[in-house]
Amino acid sequence: MDPQQRRPETARAPPVGEPGGDISSIFIAFGVFAAIAALVMFPSSLVHQVPEGHVGAYWRGGALLNIITEPGFHLKLPFITNYEPVQVTLQTDQVKDIPCGTKGGVMITFEKIEVVNRLRKDFVFDTLLNYGVNYDNTWIYDKIHHEINQFCSSHSLQQVYIDIFDQIDERMKEALQADCTRYAPGIEIISVRVTKPKIPESVRRNFEQMEEERTKVLIAIEKQRVAEKEAETKKIMAISEAEKNANVSMIHMQQKLTEKDSSRREADIENQMYLDRQKSLADADYYRVLKEAEANKLKLTPEFLELKFIDAIARNTKIFFGDKVPNMVLDQRLLGNFLNHSTKDKDGNLEMSTDT
């Protein structure tokens, strides 16, 4: 082993009172005094505070220490250990004034692009070790410039400014996150917001005129569509009104037909009742006449007829003047001749026969 390496082990402190021992004591006392003075005059060099939403990272002699502290008060060696707070919550980085050239050679400028990102706490040490405290310069600011230029160079001004402008946010987010996941996995890209780029004034006026013409065409198309809708609505209303009137007329006609049918049925019933009543009356008359005929057949005997004849003669009061009273009533032969000359018909009715 080299004697120079063993010298610190064999060296002994000079005894008190010797010149070497006095100098060491002086240096030690001076160091203690300097530390106390630094603590009194510069308390922040020894005690520091890590704010909420951050973690503390430490360097000693330029080397990153594998020490990450949580929010709160902490101690460090003054003038030897350096400290930096590192944000681990959501933060927004603004990348401004990004020039790029389109596929057609037109130069445009994106005034501002905002990138919402976050550094995961468990990847703070690896990220700082590889890319330093300003890791976002490499993976956000420089990367945005690169991706925007790549995008513009492969698309025309019409596409960048109008057609696919709404897709730039998502494409930038995917591109940033892909590289961060591969090379700096602790960086998480939440969202990207891209503002409308600035284009040359002449080109902008052309776009405005095109947009005005397009707006006029859209207005004309919309007016035509509204007119067609109004015409269709009127047609539907007219058809509905006609159908309603037809339905009302049909209902009225059906009502009238129902009334007529009811009246006809009522008349038929009345006629049938009248016929039935007349038939009943006729049947009653026929029955009465038939019964009267039967009764007359039974009671029209010669004796009854003689009685009736005598009764009729008796009621025929007449005054005769002369010396002789007619003896017709008293003449029985006359009554017998009357009965003998009377005949009966088939139905039993008496008929008078006359001699010619």
Report on the structure:
The chain has helices spanning 3-10, 19-41, 124-131, 135-153, 157-163, 168-183, 201-299, 302-315, 332-341, and strands spanning 47-50, 54-60, 63-69, 72-75, 81-87, 91-101, 107-119, 187-194, 342-344, 350-352. By secondary structure, the chain is of the alpha+beta class. A 3-stranded antiparallel beta sheet has the order 3-2-5, covered by helices on one side. A hairpin with a 2-residue loop joins strand 2 and strand 3. The longest helix has 99 residues, at 201-299. The protein is rod-shaped, with a radius of gyration of 70 Å. Its main location: endoplasmic reticulum. The chain crosses the membrane at residues 23-42. It holds the Pfam family Band_7. It is found in: Endoplasmic reticulum membrane.
